[in-house]
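so i finally got all the pieces together for this one. its three components total, 914 residues if u count the protein bits. some of the lines might not be protein, just check the labels. i wanna see the whole assembly predicted at once instead of chain by chain like last time, that was a mess tbh
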Amino acid sequence: MATAKTFRVLPGFGLTLGYTLVYLSLIVLIPLAAVFIKATSLSFADFWQTVTDPQVVSSYRVTFLTSLAAAAINVIFGLLLAWSLVRYEFWGKRVVDALIDLPFALPTAVAGITLSALYAKNGWIGSLLAPLGIKVAFTPLGILVALTFIGLPFVVRTIQPVLQELSLEFEEAATTLGANRWQASRYVVLPALLPAIITGFTLAFARAVGEYGSVVFIAGNIPMVSEITPLLIITRLEQFDVAGATAIAVVMLVVSFILLLVINVLQHWASSQGSRLKEGKAA
Amino acid sequence: MSAADTIKVYHSAERYEKNPATREPRWVKYTILSMALGFFGLFLLLPLFAVFTEALRKGFSVYVAAITHPDTLSAIRLTLLASFIALPLNIVFGVAAAWCISKFNFRGKQLLITLIDLPFSVSPVVAGLMYVLVFGIHGWFGSWLADHGIKVIFAVPSIILATTFVTFPFVARELIPLMEAQGTDAEEAAISLGATGWQTFWHVTLPNIKWGLLYGAILCNARAMGEFGAVSVVSGHLRGQTTTLPLHVEILYNEYQFAAAFAVASLLALLALVTLALKLYAERHLS
Amino acid sequence: MNFKINDFHSGKKTLALAFLLGVTSLTGFAHAADIQLRNVSYDPTRELYAEYNPLFNKYWQGKTGDNVTVEQSHGGSGKQARALLDGLDGDVATLALGYDIDSLASKGDLLPKNWQSLLPHNSTPYTSTIVFLVRKGNPKGIKDWPDLAKADVEVVTPNPKTSGGARWNYLAAWGYALKQPGGNEAKAKAFVKNIFANVKVLDTGARGSTTTFTQREVGDVLITWENEAFLALKEFGADHYEIITPSLSILAEPPVAVVEKYAKQHGTEAVAKAYLEYLYTPEAQDIIGKHFFRPRDEKALAKYKDQFPNLQLFTLQEVFGSWEKAQNTHFADKGTFDQIKQLP
């Protein structure tokens, strides 16, 4: 790794990497290995049959599609919120800023109960939507609402600090060069924010895929329609089928791992594009 | 940017609104603000309002009785214990991981970042299950632990472990993009001027990342206190012993004590307000 | 002196315990022990055991002088059984169905296989049955099981895969169809399929379904335990709901057992056994009736007979043979429940 060597002017590489790997192994990798090893107690045929059961496949579809949609919604509104918090003064800003973290602090079960109460046909929002023929609670739409709720802080809190630290020079330079406000935002600010946006999307998506507590209260949990994969894992466990549960868990783990990896590589690429652009502008 | 500037940044958006290069037309500002705040109101404020409405439905005395009940107090203690152990562990880890990832180039970096992200995407249900597989009576260390009379699963240690796991990536994830964006110039300059590694970290890196670190710690703490799924699997639900606040909410809810359940839940929502106070305090005193 | 028997697991600690006991007897203080008993139970028994535990403590204190504190753990029956198998060291298990305690014996050797013959009445000191809860005035005119299969009726029940109570629901409907003139397995399956086609919300537990039905106002009828239906009337107002008793239902038998392996470790076998046996006494049976479970004791049953309408009940054994068979046919992977839910 000759290229790496030239980089190491700074100390602490061995120490920090070593510590990172040891802690990662103890808390995450070794326990996760237990899940994989348990799943191998199934024959391959059984494993395959378990994870391709129509009901399970349908739950993957529900889980991944609603998670993607929720993450996308969060990117749009999370960006707007982060922008508002950093760039504008408005009444109540501090309170808004503090309450962004609410979905973390509120137990997911409470979130699920509260959202289902709000969106049920006798709830504050549900009763407004019911005359329009829109049902949210106890449909896949309800899952979307719950996942949007739990994912929002991820997007806001990854974009906000980067936007905060973003130097004004680039926008000033762009304006001097004749760019209007939209062009400056689109071609200067957005590329600089892109890595953070992708990170926020990834985190919100990843969190949504595994979410259980809030979803079961609002989903309706009807097999083939609104049943999420984590619920199927629970279902297997309650039938004392630990191996079957770990088999489904392994599929989820592998799929999320691959998705995360792809997005991280993409993000790495985007951030190198961004810094190239920054260097180009600054030069 | 000096420390004083940083503070100003966090106090006000004036520098953007006064600067002709970043000032936006009023209609743009108010369109963006109304969309953002509309979403905020619908998805965050309304549920929060609903929690407090439900909590106070039976009157203030029921609310006070619920949050001063001995079982609630013991749940608060356990929740605080779990997050006070998980938080420092994950802060130290987060700083170490962000340092090696953002300041150095090495092969497999993206893989490492992805592994750090993994606990986000591991369903809390699976997170609980894996500790059962490791420490449960039929698990890897189950019989050894049983022989030595050590209780991990369905006891406090597994609750701490599960909490640490679900909050594992927060600090690291907050710091990595920030430190990557900042690059290594400042640290390299300090080193070349003769500073030691620790001095560089304390006087150069830390002041630059303190806001990210604070955000990360706040998120980590909030999530640690609110975790339900993973803890539910490993807790055993022994009232007054292995029930955290979120589990206590569930117990009360299942006993049809809705007002009490939401009262306890509102305690966790109040955390956001404590966070606000902490952040204000930190912004005033941190530099 | 105030020690917890539960805390003394290891050999070293047992020595310490013996030493402490020795010291106590030497110094001549005859202190009563403080015993902790752990009852791992399912959801609907919360109120029952909250009232029963002090009663038992009074009895046990009078008999031995020892003070018994009972720690309760409640959750879905299957989840609780799994927790016991994974090492949650409950002294007694009081669960929703025999299958869950069977698996403690077959999968974990926590108690003998003949556990059900160790206490009277199949180790079930109380029974219940499955009834319907409808909205006041019964707007859909629901009288019996076939009404649940009608196209315009919305049904709420928990998921039989995750809820013990829901398994009783499912088997009650199946048994009803079987026992109709000309009833057979195929007809029963079609009948149950029609009922579940009307289910729009499948919560994971009985209490979740009750909340969905009462608080979210979803559905026309809730299939539930009789004791849960009564509790719902009590909690949410008899002026909003009424109980409909079908012509035929299942005798639901939630069993109890000493988890011998853990009780032995804790040295609590005697008190655990007494704890369950005391459930059969007139005092306890009265509390059982008060919490809307059907008492086994004739006298207590007579006292609460106005509360429990007469209906024809069949047992699980007479229609399905055993829990193991019922589980494998209906609720295991690819069982009839999976089949009816996966068909379009």
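Chain A is about 80% helix and 0% strand.
Chain A touches chain B through 113 residues (CB under 8 Å).
anyway lmk what u think
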